Amino acid sequence: MNRRMSSSDKTVGVGDRTGREYWDGWWERRPLPRPLDPFRKGLRNYPYRRFHQFFSGIFGGQGARGQRLIEIGCAQSVFLPYFARYFGFVVAGIDQSGLGCDRARRILEQQDVAGEIYCGDFFSPPPQTVDAFDWVLSYGVLEHFDDTAGAVRAVARFLKPGGRVITFVPNLTGILGRYQRLLDRKLYEAHVPLSAERLAQAHRDAGLDVESALYLLPFGLEVTGIETWGRGVAGMAVKVANAFLTRSVRLVDDHVVRLKSNRWTSPYVVCVARKLTV
C-alpha cells in the first residue's frame, strides 16, 4: 500500500516521510485501474471481494444512501465510484498530487459518478469540508507520518460529530515488514509500521472512540514493493514470485479452508473509530 499523500510546510510537525514529487512520479508510472467490481470472480479480484464483505458489514445496516464520504489521499481512486454505486454515498476526495486528482476525476467521469475532488493538503482542508462528512476513508496514507495521532487528528476534522473514520494501513509489523525491509529498505523506511494496537491507540490519542481495530485478509504481498530495483529481470522475477505465492494462499482460502487473519501475515490493518458528539 505504498501510496498517497505528500509534504508541505504544514505537515512538517507530523513528520511526513514522503513528498509531493514522489507521488506525482508514482502516479505517472501507473495506468488507470479498471472499475472495482466486488462480484468479479478470479484470484486477482479476491481482495476487493473481501473488502466488499468488510464494508457491507459496516455500511449494510447504516442506511448509507445519501450520506457523505470523503477519501483522504484519493489519487487515482477506485473506491469513490464504488462507494457511490454500491452504497449510495455522496462522494468526495482530497489529495495533493495534481496528477492524482486529475486521474481521480477521470475515473469518476468514466463511471458516470458525480463527486468533488479537492487538490490540496488534508492538514489545511478547504473550509467547506470541515465537520462536513459522515464518513472519512484513508487507504495507505497515515503510515507515512511519524506522528500517527497527529495525522488522525487532521483526518477527523472532516467528520461531523458522530461521524466515523475508516483507516487502512499496510501491516508491516510482522513477516511482511521484514520481507519489505529485505527487498527495499528505502521503501520500507517511507512507512511507520503500525500494528492493530498501535493504530487503535493513535485514534484514541486523537480523541476518537475506537469501535474496532483488526487485521484483514490472511496473506498478501501486494503491500510490498521493490521501487528502487528498476525494471530489470531480477525485479520482474520477484514480482512474479510474489504474485504466485499470494494467489496460491488465496486459492486455498477461497476454495479449500478459510484462513485466519493475523498480525504476522495479514497484509492490512484497519481501524474504525467515531468522532465524539461532545
The CATH architecture: 3-Layer(aba) Sandwich
Q: What is the chain-wise order of helices and strands?
A: HHEHEHEEHEHHHEHE
CATH superfamily: Vaccinia Virus protein VP39
Helix content: 25-40%
Short description, anyone?
The protein has helices at residues 20-28, 46-59, 79-87, 98-110, 148-156, 175-183, 185-188, 196-205, 233-255; strands spanning 68-72, 90-95, 115-119, 133-139, 159-170, 208-216, 268-275. Helix 3 links the parallel strand 1 (68-72) and strand 2 (90-95). It is 36% helix and 19% strand.
Write the layout of secondary structure elements.
Blueprint: H1 20-28, H2 46-59, E1 68-72, H3 79-87, E2 90-95, H4 98-110, E3 115-119, E4 133-139, H5 148-156, E5 159-170, H6 175-183, H7 185-188, H8 196-205, E6 208-216, H9 233-255, E7 268-275
Parallel strand pairs: 1-2, 1-4, 2-3, 4-5
Antiparallel strand pairs: 5-7, 6-7
Helix pairs in contact: 5-8
Would you kindly provide a written description of the structure presented here, covering whatever features stand out?
By secondary structure, the chain is of the alpha/beta class. The chain has one domain (9-275): Vaccinia Virus protein VP39 (Rossmann fold), CATH 3.40.50. Helices cover 36% and strands 19% of the residues. It is built from nine helices and seven strands. A seven-stranded mixed sheet has the order 3-2-1-4-5-7-6, sandwiched between helices. α5 packs across α8 (196-205). The protein is globular.
